Amino acid sequence: MSSFRNDQSAEILGSVYRNAEMAYEASGDVLKRCPNRKLAGEINAQRERYREVAAQTRSELVRRGA
Fold first, then answer.
1. How far apart are CA 48 and CA 63, in angstroms?
2. Is the pLDDT of residue 63 over 70?
């Protein structure tokens, strides 16, 4: 049972990592086309948060040996 939970956790963390990376990349594409500076600032702040989430999940995956 413990191995099953660890496998599920690793799978979830992997999905979170991939989604955060994808969101980071997509938000960069959106920023290139955003003429509104205020909105661009908000998108950039969210983009950095995606990068942080990706880094945290990657660190956790490495820590778990996944």
1. 22
2. yes
More confident residue, 19 or 4: 19
Q: What is the DSSP string of 1-66?
A: -HHHHHHHHHHHHHHHHHHHHHHHHHHHHHHHT---HHHHHHHHHHHHHHHHHHHHHHHHHHHHT-
pLDDT class of 7 with cuts at 50, 70, 90: confident
Which domain covers residue 18, as residue numbers?
A: 2-64
What amino acid occupies position 16?
Answer: V
* Residue 57, burial from CB neighbour count under 10 angstroms (0-12, 13-18, 19+): buried
